[in-house]
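Quick one, tokens below:
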């Protein structure tokens, strides 16, 4: 492969993109795809595609990067120029400011000086006048103040003098007092308060007296500091303590305190006077200050006046010079500022773009580094993954990312833009990620795509897309759409190749040979041109030719040589993709405006939201495209500009305009995104119904696993979905409407699909829907138990079987207790009083689906179903029906009755065939009965009817399945009249084309259930003339034999012919009974019967119904068996129809001579079929296709745990294996046949256990990562994943079909054989009591061994012996050499107590254990134990009656009794 890469021309052209590591990665990634079918041609395509993608993407990145760098370079140049200009402008601006300032300053000085001179002259005169007035007023005010203060001034002076005379020792004396007298304290308090101190404590007083300048502070105290508050407090104190301030009193107490008391009183008086004279003093101070200022100003102003006059002259000369200089600078600065301002505005506006461009350039460097690996991933994705489903793509992509060491990668984003994807969606492409990926693939693949498109959405988009591109390019004829079935296909292909058109070929079921040269690109050079072989012609090849192949078949068969030539691209819808589509449909219907803004479509109901959403996305995309165009324009203008861009005013204006538009668009985009978030939140409200619809569709898709014809197209389901959305609902909120619509969708889908299913599968469908639409209805382990996937063997349960549980349900109880212990505990199964009546079925057999009232509230509906399955399996069918109806809220699992006329007028379409699925015995449509030689006739009729609008019925399509693809192509390519309808009838067939099934409206027609409806339908086909055309005996016999089951209409017609022949000469001696019996038994019906015991049933029916006494011959008459109905003696049709009409609607078992409990047996059998079908659908098809560790672990873990548990209880088998290995060959040659059988059976069982153990252990090691996966282990695991017995196991022993049941059966039998080995060694095997034949792998071989041993004992040949059985209490059989006792056998169809058989009651179990049976081989000439009073009863190995082990003799009183039991279906079974 490395050599292939090295020799590739494209590789060399790619240059650096192809280093050795890339080549190694290619080889490794190709090898990783080997298990998915990768081939060498794909590898070539991988290499070619990588070269192309890498080169294109690299060129794209480099071009864009260069473009951005050019723009950034111009911006950098502009920034540099702007910086230079700014500096120069700043210098000139600074100089201008200086010059302007100087000129202004000069002017200001001139003006100021002149004004000052004038002002100063006026002010001098005013000040002089003012000074004279103020001097007079001041003298007057001074006299008033002095007069007021003269009265208290002596007092204050005296007090100050007294305080100044206080001696220091007198003060210290006061300070030394610990607690001063009240008088001293009051005086000091007054002093402190007067001086504005708040703290009047003794400590503060002492502290005050202790200061050095205490006397100075008091003497120099300014009375102006005394406020009104202080004066009020001191006055209050003096008033209250007036005695303390009396001089005589205080002087006696303290010499120092007396002056202080006088000082307090003096200052009080002085402060009052000051308060009174304060306004006068203030006014006086102001007058004095004003007077002084005026005198100073007069002198100053006179001096300034002289100086101003001198300076004015000088400034006028300077001002003229400065003004001239400033004007010159101003002109220069304005020009520079304009240039810089424009440039700065532009650069500021482009700052965002510049930052983004810088980041983008850097990111592009990273992109170039990552480009090789991204291109590698993209090429690999396009080459290897398009044909695989979404989960496989995701897994493989993740594996590649892990291998390459990458964290993230988005294929769609790498190869396309958001605008492209939105455009594709507007052209009709579904919006899910899978469809987007596929669109990228088919538009970029180097190989011709094969589009797998079951829904036809992708092909519609492809055609629209190509036509849109053609329209953009101006070409209207570059696309051709055709089919391989078109008679002009070859000519169309030749023209497309020659003229380079795009050719879309639809309905491709296989790759025709004519396409191979084109797909292989087998081009021959002829001079300057290339030619390609098409048929027998060589056609010029045009490089622009493209070929797209389209098929609706989801799984087209492609041989290996064709698979490697095309890029198969699978558009099969996924669950998430469908959910998105259905959400769009829901929004479109419920809120059209919301979806209209999200995509581009829309219709009705709430226009505002949908239109907004659609418009938003459309507007956003347009804005993004405009923004991209504007950015390109910016870059283009910048990159292509010459010279200094700042001098290019036109360019600057253009850039400004572009930036302005881009800013507006950016704002609009931000608003758009915000609104989108809001609208998306509103859309999410409707997601539940879309999710439910998606789940529902894929549940329907699962139905094809149980019958190939159950296939439904996505288009049909979408039609049902739209119909559900159109339902009217009562007014309410959105949630309630969604709930109603969900129920409507379920009801419509359930009815539509049920109508397309056979009756036997409708309950299966209901259970499948109930389980998956409501996953919370049961736990996974409970569902596994219901399907028979037991995680734990019943032997692990320690619970004791309740007494009320029937013996045949003991194993079911053990399994339930082991696997669902919580359910067993909650159900209180040991309470016999609660459960016994329910469990026995007495009196309420029909109500077994309802649990006892005491228990009903303790378990949920599905758990109740598990209880019915375990203990009343005969009522499981009814229980499942009730469960489905309750869980899904439907009335019945049967579809509602419908009219064929309404079906045709309301549901059919010209391009949708109507397929009637029939069972043998139900076919009423006649037009063209398909068979050999009818195909051409049918095609011609189809074309004629499609053109004229007539209806066509083609019947028995299952006979011509090979021709159906041709019919399908005709149907889908014909031009159809709107009135045309095509009806098809067919029985189910596995080769019926799936696409035709999906595209058809399917309706099932089955033979009507019940005797009455069958007979009425038969008589509808017989006219009165036909009945009366023969003798009465013929009419009587026609009535009688149709009673038993019919096989086909042909058998019915043949039977009537035989009856007519046998009664032809009735007048000459009666009917020819022997001939009638012989022909009906051997020629008409017996040929279809391959079971001798079914032959006995047929023979007994003939003997009872076609009997002379039944038709009243020989003088005797008796009613029909099982009824009181007498056959009429006339030949009138109405007489017989009247009898049939009076039959009960529901079949009575006695009419068929069946036991009364047959309904139980039928329900149990039907239930097993339903559970089996559900189990089949539960198997993951994708898990079975290949190895997926997670899926294998999830699905196989229960089986592995079960096997581990079984082996832990089977230690004796390991001992047996060692003994067998140590035994010598031929050691048992001399032993008896029975002993030899036991040895061989033991060896067989041990070998099978070892085989299973080896396989499951290998799987376990693989899942734990301890061992690699081999093809053998993968094959066995694949079978187990599908719940199929691996072939290597099945070859050793054919056992149960379920893997878990098979493993349990193997271990059970192997352990039982060990017990047989012990009994054989002791010689007590045949005499140790009843033997259980079900514990043997080969019970038939055991009977032959017993036969051989008996022959040896009797010295007779084996062929001369016959098997005899008896239930005689003695256990003896005459003529027997060895008699054994066989126990545990079951019987159906009758009760048997060992002596006689009796009828079953309606509440009887479906099978019962019979007493132990004696069995022996005796000579053929020896009589049977019961003589001739016996009947042969089959002994089957299983209850499905598929394999007869032998037949046993059971006692009967007469042959008539024997006939009764034969018709009742009597049989015996091994447990």
């Amino acid at each position: 492969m490395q050599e292939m890469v090295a020799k590739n021309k494209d590789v060399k052209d790619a240059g650096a993109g192809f280093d050795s590591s890339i080549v190694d990665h290619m080889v490794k990634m190709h090898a990783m795809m080997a298990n998915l079918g990768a081939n060498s041609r794909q590898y070539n395509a991988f290499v070619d595609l990588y070269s192309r993608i890498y080169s294109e993407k690299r060129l794209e990145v480099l071009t864009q990067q260069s473009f951005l760098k050019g723009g950034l370079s111009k911006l950098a140049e502009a920034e540099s120029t702007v910086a230079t200009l700014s500096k120069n402008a700043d210098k000139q601006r600074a100089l201008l400011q200086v010059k302007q300032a100087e000129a202004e300053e000069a002017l200001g000085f001139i003006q100021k000086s002149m004004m000052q001179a004038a002002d100063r002259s006026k002010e001098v005169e005013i000040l002089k006048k003012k000074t004279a007035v103020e001097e007079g007023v001041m003298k007057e005010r001074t006299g008033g103040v002095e007069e007021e203060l003269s009265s208290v001034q002596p007092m204050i002076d005296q007090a100050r003098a007294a305080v100044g005379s206080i001696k220091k020792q007198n003060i210290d004396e006061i300070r030394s007092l610990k607690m001063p007298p009240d008088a001293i304290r009051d005086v000091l308090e007054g002093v402190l308060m007067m001086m504005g101190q708040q703290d009047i404590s003794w400590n503060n007083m002492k502290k005050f007296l202790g200061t050095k300048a205490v006397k100075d502070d008091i003497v120099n105290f300014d009375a102006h500091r005394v406020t009104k508050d202080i004066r009020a407090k001191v006055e209050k104190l003096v008033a209250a303590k007036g005695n303390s301030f009396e001089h005589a009193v205080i002087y006696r107490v303290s010499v120092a305190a007396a002056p202080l008391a006088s000082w307090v009183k003096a200052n009080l008086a002085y402060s009052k006077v000051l308060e009174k004279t304060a306004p006068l003093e203030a006014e006086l101070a102001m007058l004095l200050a004003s007077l002084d200022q005026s005198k100073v100003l007069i002198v100053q102003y006179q001096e300034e006046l002289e100086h101003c006059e001198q300076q004015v002259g000088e400034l006028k000369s300077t001002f003229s010079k400065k003004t001239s200089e400033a004007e010159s600078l101003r002109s220069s600065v304005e020009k520079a500022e304009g240039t810089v301002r424009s440039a700065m505005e532009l650069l500021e506006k482009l700052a965002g773009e510049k930052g983004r461009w810088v980041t983008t350039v850097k990111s592009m460097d990273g992109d170039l580094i990552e480009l090789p690996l991204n291109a590698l991933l993209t090429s690999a994705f396009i080459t290897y993954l398009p044909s695989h489903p979404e989960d496989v793509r995701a897994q493989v992509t993740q594996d590649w990312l892990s291998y390459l060491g990458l964290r993230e990668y988005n294929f769609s984003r790498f190869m396309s833009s958001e605008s492209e994807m939105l455009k594709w969606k507007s052209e009709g492409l579904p919006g899910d990620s899978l469809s987007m990926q596929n669109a990228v693939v088919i538009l970029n693949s180097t190989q011709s795509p094969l589009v797998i498109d079951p829904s036809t959405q992708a092909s519609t988009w492809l055609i629209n897309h190509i036509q849109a591109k053609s329209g953009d390019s101006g070409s209207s004829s570059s696309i051709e759409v055709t089919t391989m079935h078109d008679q002009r296909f070859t000519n169309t292909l030749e023209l497309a190749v020659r003229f380079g058109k795009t050719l879309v070929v639809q309905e491709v079921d296989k790759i025709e040979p004519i396409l191979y040269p084109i797909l292989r690109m087998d081009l021959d050079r002829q001079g300057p041109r290339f030619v390609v072989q098409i048929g027998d012609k060589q056609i010029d090849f045009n490089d622009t030719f493209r070929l797209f192949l389209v098929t609706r078949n989801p799984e087209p068969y492609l041989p290996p040589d064709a698979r490697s030539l095309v890029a198969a691209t699978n558009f099969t819808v996924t669950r998430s993709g469908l959910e998105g589509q259905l959400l769009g449909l829901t929004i479109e219907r419920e809120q059209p405006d919301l979806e209209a803004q999200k995509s581009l479509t829309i219709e009705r109901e709430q226009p505002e939201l949908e239109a907004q959403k659609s418009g938003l996305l459309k507007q956003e995309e347009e804005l993004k495209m405009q923004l991209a165009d504007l950015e390109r324009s910016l870059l283009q203008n910048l990159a292509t500009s010459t010279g200094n861009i700042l001098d290019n005013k036109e360019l600057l204006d253009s850039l400004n305009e572009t930036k302005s538009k881009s800013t507006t668009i950016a704002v609009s985009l931000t608003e758009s995104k915000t609104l989108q978030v809001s609208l998306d939140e509103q859309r999410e409200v409707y997601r539940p119904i879309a999710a439910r619809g998606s789940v529902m569709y894929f549940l329907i898709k699962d139905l094809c696993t149980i019958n190939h014809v159950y296939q439904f197209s996505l288009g049909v389901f979408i039609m049902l979905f739209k119909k559900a959305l159109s339902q009217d609902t009562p007014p309410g909120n959105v949630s309630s409407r969604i709930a109603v619509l969900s129920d409507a969708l379920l009801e419509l889908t359930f009815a539509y699909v049920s109508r397309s299913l056979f009756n036997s599968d409708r309950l299966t469908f209901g259970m499948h829907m109930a389980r998956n639409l409501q996953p919370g209805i049961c736990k996974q382990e409970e569902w596994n138990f219901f399907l028979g996937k037991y995680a734990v063997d019943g032997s692990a349960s320690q619970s004791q079987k309740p007494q009320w549980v029937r013996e045949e349900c003991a194993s079911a109880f053990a399994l339930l207790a082991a696997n669902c212990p919580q359910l067993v505990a909650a159900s209180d199964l040991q309470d016999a009083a609660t459960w016994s009546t329910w469990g026995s079925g007495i009196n309420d057999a029909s109500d077994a689906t309802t649990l006892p009232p005491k228990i009903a509230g303790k378990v949920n509906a599905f758990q109740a179903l598990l209880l019915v399955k375990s203990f009343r399996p005969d009522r499981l069918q009814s229980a499942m029906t009730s469960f489905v109806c309750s869980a899904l809220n439907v009335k019945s699992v049967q579809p509602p009755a419908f009219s064929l006329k309404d079906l045709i007028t309301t549901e059919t379409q010209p391009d949708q065939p109507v397929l009637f699925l029939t069972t043998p015995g139900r076919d009423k449509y006649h037009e063209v009965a398909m068979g050999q030689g009818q195909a051409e006739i049918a095609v011609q009729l189809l074309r004629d009817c499609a053109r004229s609008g007539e209806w066509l019925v083609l019947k028995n399509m299952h006979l011509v399945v090979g021709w159906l693809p041709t019919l399908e192509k005709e149907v889908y390519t014909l031009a159809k009249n709107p009135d045309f309808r095509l009806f098809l009838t067919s029985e189910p067939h596995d080769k019926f084309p799936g696409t035709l099934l999906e595209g058809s409206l399917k309706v099932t027609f089955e033979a009507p259930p019940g005797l009455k409806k069958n007979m009425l339908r038969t008589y509808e086909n017989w006219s009165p003339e036909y009945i009366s055309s023969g003798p009465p005996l013929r009419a009587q016999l026609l009535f009688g034999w149709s009673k038993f089951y019919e096989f086909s209409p042909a058998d019915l017609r043949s039977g009537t012919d035989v009856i007519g022949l046998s009664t032809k000469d009735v007048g000459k001696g009666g009917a020819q009974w022997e001939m009638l019996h012989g022909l009906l038994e051997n020629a008409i019906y017996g040929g279809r019967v391959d079971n001798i015991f079914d032959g006995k049933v047929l023979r007994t029916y003939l003997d009872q119904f076609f009997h002379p006494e039944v038709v009243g011959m020989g003088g005797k008459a008796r009613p029909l068996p099982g009824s009181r109905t007498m056959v009429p003696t006339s030949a009138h049709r109405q007489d017989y129809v009247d009898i049939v009409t009076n039959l009960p609607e529901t079949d009575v078992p006695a009419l068929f001579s069946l036991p009364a409990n047959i309904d139980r047996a039928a329900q149990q059998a039907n239930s097993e079929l339903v559970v089996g079908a559900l189990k089949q659908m539960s198997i993951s098809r994708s898990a079975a296709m290949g190895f997926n560790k997670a899926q294998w672990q999830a699905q196989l873990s229960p089986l592995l745990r079960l096997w581990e548990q079984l082996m832990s209880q089977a230690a004796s088998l390991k001992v047996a294996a060692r003994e067998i290995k140590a035994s010598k060959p031929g050691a048992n040659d001399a032993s008896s046949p029975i002993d030899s059988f036991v040895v061989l059976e033991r060896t067989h069982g041990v070998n099978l256990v070892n085989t299973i153990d080896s396989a499951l252990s290998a799987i376990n090691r693989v899942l734990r990562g301890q061992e690699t996966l081999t093809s053998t282990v993968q094959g066995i695991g694949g079978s187990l994943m599908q719940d199929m017995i691996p072939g290597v196991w099945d070859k050793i022993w054919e056992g149960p079909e379920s893997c878990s049941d098979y493993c349990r059966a193997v271990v059970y039998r192997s352990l039982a054989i060990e017990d047989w080995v012990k009994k054989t060694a002791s010689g007590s095997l045949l005499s140790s009591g009843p033997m259980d034949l079900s514990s043997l792998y080969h019970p038939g071989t055991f009977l032959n061994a017993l036969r051989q041993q008996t022959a040896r004992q009797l010295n007779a040949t084996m062929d001369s012996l016959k098997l005899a059985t008896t239930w005689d209490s003695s256990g003896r059989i005459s003529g027997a050499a060895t008699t054994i006792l066989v126990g545990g056998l079951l019987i159906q169809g009758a009760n048997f107590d060992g002596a006689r058989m009796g009828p079953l009651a309606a509440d009887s179990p479906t099978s019962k254990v019979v007493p132990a049976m004696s069995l022996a081989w005796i000579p053929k000439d020896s009589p049977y134990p019961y003589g001739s009073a016996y009947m042969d009863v089959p002994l089957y190995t299983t209850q499905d009656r598929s394999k007869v082990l032998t037949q046993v003799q059971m006692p009967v009183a007469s042959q008539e009794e024997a006939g009764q039991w034969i018709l009742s279906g009597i049989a015996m079974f091994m447990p």
